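Please fill in the sequence for the structure shown.

STRUCTURE ENCODING:
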């Protein structure tokens, strides 16, 4: 009995410790928001085999790594990754936030199990950034800026790229999807097939015209801010270099002055010794 109690205590302690580490990671990168656009939007907390009840989003909610998100029929939401990405979650969709890690590389990842999302990703600025969408049949690694991912009930995946490039890969291989192309993946054992975006796919983008206009404005503001930061950092480097060169020059001049002073002192000492010797001879 005592042994069983000890095992349970250790297990609970381990769960609390790991949970704390996960919460610290989430709080360190706590720039995640879930905004309801219309309809019914829900999210819930998950950890290992545990999960909370679904919580309804009235307007906007703070979310973190590990959270599940779902939208019902006729509903729509926006997942906000700070100033790095915006994800439009369309109706009847379900996804999980897998990664939101900072450091030398800003790495974001979501797992879409069913439904459709549109991703606007800003891959610019000083820091390197990566964004991935995991699905049952393939992984879409972002190299571009604007694309959509759709997962059907049969687990067939479609990746449409409007701007930039997206790498779509699974166990069968990888393909690069560029702007104006659509990649279709039947299963995780079948390589993606490329086609041109047709009128049907284009009409889907037109349906989200209002959101796209808003996102385009946001994107321009963020890019302008990041370009300003890049210029300021470059200017700081020039200033630091100039200060270093001036400091080195001043140090060189000071050394030369000290050297000349030492030479002057040596000459003075030589003259003093000469006078002392002359005075000694006269006394004799």
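FILLED IN BY: designer on duty
SEQUENCE:
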């Amino acid at each position: 009995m005592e042994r069983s109690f000890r095992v349970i205590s250790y297990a609970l302690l381990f769960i609390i410790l790991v949970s704390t580490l996960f919460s610290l990671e989430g709080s360190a990168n706590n720039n995640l928001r879930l905004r309801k656009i219309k309809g019914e939007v829900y999210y819930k907390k998950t950890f290992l085999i545990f999960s909370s009840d679904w919580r309804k989003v009235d307007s906007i909610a703070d979310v973190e790594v590990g959270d599940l998100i779902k939208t019902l029929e006729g509903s729509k939401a926006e997942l906000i990754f700070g100033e790095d990405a915006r994800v439009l979650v369309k109706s009847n969709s379900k996804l999980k936030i897998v990664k939101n890690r900072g450091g030398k590389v800003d790495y974001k990842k979501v797992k879409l199990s069913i439904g459709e999302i549109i991703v606007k990703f800003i891959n610019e600025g000083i820091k390197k950034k990566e964004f991935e969408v995991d699905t049952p049949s393939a992984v879409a690694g972002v190299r571009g800026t604007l694309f959509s991912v759709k997962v059907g009930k049969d687990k067939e995946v479609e990746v449409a790229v409007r701007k930039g490039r997206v790498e779509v890969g699974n166990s069968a291989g990888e393909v690069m999807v560029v702007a104006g192309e659509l990649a279709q993946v039947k299963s995780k054992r079948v390589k993606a097939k490329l086609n041109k975006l047709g009128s049907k796919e284009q009409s889907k983008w037109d349906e989200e015209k209002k959101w796209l206009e808003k996102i385009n404005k946001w994107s321009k503001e963020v890019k302008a801010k990041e370009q300003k930061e890049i210029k300021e950092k470059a200017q700081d480097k020039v200033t630091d270099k100039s200060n270093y060169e001036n400091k080195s020059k001043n140090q060189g001049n000071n050394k030369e002055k000290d050297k000349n002073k030492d030479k002057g002192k040596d000459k003075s000492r030589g003259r003093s010794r000469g006078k002392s010797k002359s005075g000694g001879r006269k006394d004799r």
